[in-house]
Amino acid sequence: MLVLLLLPGLAAAQQIRPADRERLTETDALLGRALKQALAYGAAADIALLTRAMQGAPGDFDPAGDWNCRTLKLGGILPLVAYPDFSCRIEPLETGGWRLVKLTGSQRVVGTIHATGPSALFLGVGHVGTAPATDYAGLPPDDQTPVEPNQTTADVGWFEQMGPDRARLLLPDPVLESDFDILYLTRQAG
Q1: What is the pLDDT of residue 10?
Q2: How many CA within 13 A on the CB side of residue 100?
């Protein structure tokens, strides 16, 4: 994605690690390979959810609020795994952008969303348990090995909002378990 070339303000605020930059630029190719495997071998109900998650182009961007979020893991250990709904929250940051936190479940995500156009850059970490070992900026710059405690790994990708009540976080080439992850978000009622 050419959006990476348009991030001079972000580059000054937070450095994107080289391996993560490569994952981000290869998003479309990685997604294509993972979708091919998921659609060929996934269970019908999981494919239906994947189809809903991928429907719609990115549009107006207003992500703040409480969301239901489901992780879909494509490729790798299994062709397609869809987890149930968990809770996520997105809050605006005083410095610009937003902070996304997956609040429930054994596998968590926390990071920042930086609007760059229809697809917003996400820089964060995934971890097991309630607290990551570090935030994205604290990860070793040239190493993708999980950081202990809590198996903290870099999670980078693209956040897209397809309508007021639907969004997705595309996470190419995650460090653990799968070839591509999608966090599918639907806004909580009330």
Answers
A1: 47
A2: 34
Domain ranges of the chain: 20-129+148-187
Cα 104 from Cα 98, distance rounded (Å):
19
Longest dimension (CA), the chain: 45
In sequence order, what are the residues at sequence separation of 6 or more whose Cβ sits closer than 8 angstroms to the Cβ of residue 58? 118, 119, 160, 161, 162
Which residue has tokens 């397609």? Answer: 80
Supply the DSSP string of 56-91, one letter for each residue: S--------EEEEEEEEEESTTSSEEE---EEEEEE
Q: What is the 3-state secondary structure (H, E, C) of 115-171?
A: CCCCEEEEEEEEEECCCCCCCHHHCCCCCCCCECCCCEEEEEEEEEEEECCEEEEEE
What is the domain class of 20-129+148-187 according to CATH? mainly beta
Q: Which of 63, 110, 114 shows the shortest CA–CA distance to 90? A: 63
Q: Please, which residues have CB within 8 angstroms of residue 136's CB and are 6 or more apart in sequence?
A: 14, 111, 112, 123, 124, 125, 154, 156
Binned average pLDDT, 10 residues per bin, the chain of 190 residues: 45 75 97 97 98 96 96 96 98 96 96 93 94 93 91 97 97 94 94
pLDDT of residue 14: 63
